[in-house]
Amino acid sequence: MKPGFRNSRTLQLISAMGVFILSGCGGGGNPGEDIGNAIGQGLVCGVLNCKESSDLALTDISTRFSVSQNNGVVQVDAGLGQSANVFTTVRPSGNDRITASGNGQSIVLSDNSGGMRTKYSGQFNDNSAQPVVTVSLQRGADNYPATVTIPSAFSITTPAAVSNLPRSAVKMRVQFSRAMPGYVYASMSVNCNRTDGSSFTDSTDINHKLDPDAYRIDTLDLDAVLNARSQAKNNNNPNTALVSTCTIDFTWTNYVTGTVSSSLNKYSEIRGLRSVTHRVNYDSRA
Which domain of life is it from (predicted)? Predict the structure, then answer.
């Protein structure tokens, strides 16, 4: 091998990778730009399969909008995709931007993904019981709106705000202060101890079942999810000790879907969400 060939070859590979990274994320053109930032965006876009909105027809862009309200503040979160493809992220570019309006106010959503342009958010005040919110993809002077009414607030009537749940209880029944139109899903944040004295924290969704008058989580299902997450958090070690006790914050979310401009892709969606949380002290030994 000739002297210097290996270094020359390495530089060629690095240069080629840089071009690939920049082009894969829709960037490039100015070699003097921040290379570190470009590499970071390239890695993100390598996973998210980024596409620029200005390169797509409106009928190819699907909205992923959600709005919620807490203490008189409406929170808007937004992203864009391509059709039904969950593995593609569309990034606003050119004359495209995302706006939100409600309660006589209008805001432009800001990038909250560290300059990656993959996630956008914004807030405005609205104390009404069920805010009506419109989130729009704006292309030039034209708006393509999606509108939803946030569900009314609710509380958990059963169980108590903090309750004890032994595995032998068989099930945890959850009742709410109002009917739950649309859809309901449950998630949990856990802080668990294992039988060997070790511990872990995690957040995950959990499936629930329906009784005629309540939502239900069976303790055998809960125990299985907790031990599966425990093993995953321990490098998927099959010899991970079993979960013994956990402090669990269950979050129940009620959401409805709204209407989206027919000019956008048919797989577009806007959700209005309302959530409530309660704490459970779980004991797998009892």
Answer: Bacteria
